[in-house]
Write a structure and sequence with these properties.
globular; mainly alpha; two-stranded antiparallel sheet
Length: 100
């Protein structure tokens, strides 16, 4: 088990250090600058404890790992905390919404 985890960690470290991966990230940041900027704002606010990250999904109310969903990127700290399943479901129903 430990060897597998070390192998996976090394695999992901190699991918992240590749020039192709770095190019894709740079391209995303250029093409989606407003999204990237707001994601960083939310991450920093959570880190600095200005924004409280709950342990429950706001849609299904189950205790799960949650991720930030921005309904509108012009409001960086107006976040809906959704589990992965509910977040994917939201985007299937609503598309990118105002995030597009």
């Amino acid at each position: 088990m430990r060897k597998e985890r070390i192998a996976m960690k090394n695999y992901y470290l190699n991918i992240r250090s590749s020039d192709e991966y770095k190019h894709k990230i740079a391209l995303y940041k250029r093409e989606n600058y407003h999204k990237y900027k707001e994601k960083v704002s939310a991450r920093n606010a959570t880190r600095r404890l200005r924004l409280n990250k709950p342990d429950r999904c706001s849609a299904c109310n189950e205790i799960k790992k949650v991720e930030a969903h921005h309904d509108d990127y012009s409001k960086p700290l107006d976040i809906r905390w959704l589990c992965v399943e509910c977040h994917n479901e939201w985007h299937i129903k609503n598309g990118s919404g105002l995030n597009g």
